[in-house]
Amino acid sequence: MVKAAVLYEQKNSLIIEDLDLDDPKAGEVLVKVGAAGICRSDRHYMHGDAPTALPIVLGHEGAGTVEAVGPGVTSVRPGQQVILSFVSSCGRCKSCITGNSQLCDAHAAAGAFMFDGTTRLHKGDTRVHHFGKTALFAEHTVVPEAAVVPIESNIGMDVAALIGCCVPTGVGAVTASANVQPGSTVAVIGCGGVGLNVVMGAALVNASKIIAVDISEAQLEFALKFGATHTVNASDKDPVAQVRELTDGKGADYTFEVFGSADTTKAAYDMAGKKGVVTIVGIAPVGAEAGINAVDMVRNEKTMRGTYYGSTHASVDMPKLVDMYLAGKLNLDDLVVRHYSLDQINEAYGDMDKGEIGRGVIMYG
Ligand SMILES: [Zn+2]
Ligand SMILES: [Zn+2]
Questions:
Q1: Does residue 151 come out as left (phi exceeding 0), alpha (psi in the -120 to 50 range) or beta?
Q2: Cα–Cα distance between 155 and 167 in angstroms, integer?
Q3: Any catalytic annotation for residue 191?
Q4: Which of 12, 120, 149, 305 gives 22 a disulfide partner, CB atoms 3.0 to 4.6 angstroms apart?
Q5: Is 93 designated active site?
């Protein structure tokens, strides 16, 4: 039995209860969860912004300790600290073999099931789905071997958890996707956990101006701690005009949309200058469409693209991010602002909805 937070119905609270968890099968790993981040992606499913299989255990940003391994598992052993990847890349599909493991076709096709099409979580006879094949809002979880990335130097579980989602997504958007050049100007719309990592990534590659855009003054002030050089409060005045003003009327060289809406996608596009690179990181509600000025795209040679998981490769990039944190290059200690128990998870999401600064993390005993 494991204690878990279960989503039975969208637009309802998570229910904390005991579930049955099967032993790991071949190629699977049992993880004692150490910490799980309160990320907006899970919230979208709770709010009904996107369809999902139900009932489901959400939670896709986390870290833990390997407790047992199923037959054939070779990359980890019991006792190792691991960061969870919410994409279990198969290594064999077209996406994987062309260097895009974050888009693994087999992982996507299996959805909220394990690769054999079944679940390890049950409530009596009812199967319970595994979001991202990680299901980290539970004390223990069984995941595919590809979902665990062992780390050599033990670090705090809260910080390790962040390296499972918001850090690679944000830093990777800058370094692996947009490839921001030193000295360039950057605007970041949305200063939650992922947005602050975009800001940190831009600082890491020596952008000259890093303009944080948000509607919360508290979040903007917080962004200054992570390398933002300027702030724009989008609730005061047109954020596009403000970003243009801060970039000598030119528009930013790189813009990042990290909120997930049609309006902010359009704003990210409009804020970019000539040859501007517009990177969409946030996931908008299903069906959202953003109107883009098609002539402007050609005349100003803008580039617009999406990035998923920061276009990073979990098994290669997460250990690098751990090393960058240990070298003092990523301020993840200040990013974790609140700790909660699993019993407090609905409160934790309420705090995120209220616009509380920084990241909240569920800590398991
Ligand atoms: Zn996330
Ligand atoms: Zn694959």
A1: beta
A2: 15
A3: no
A4: 120
A5: no
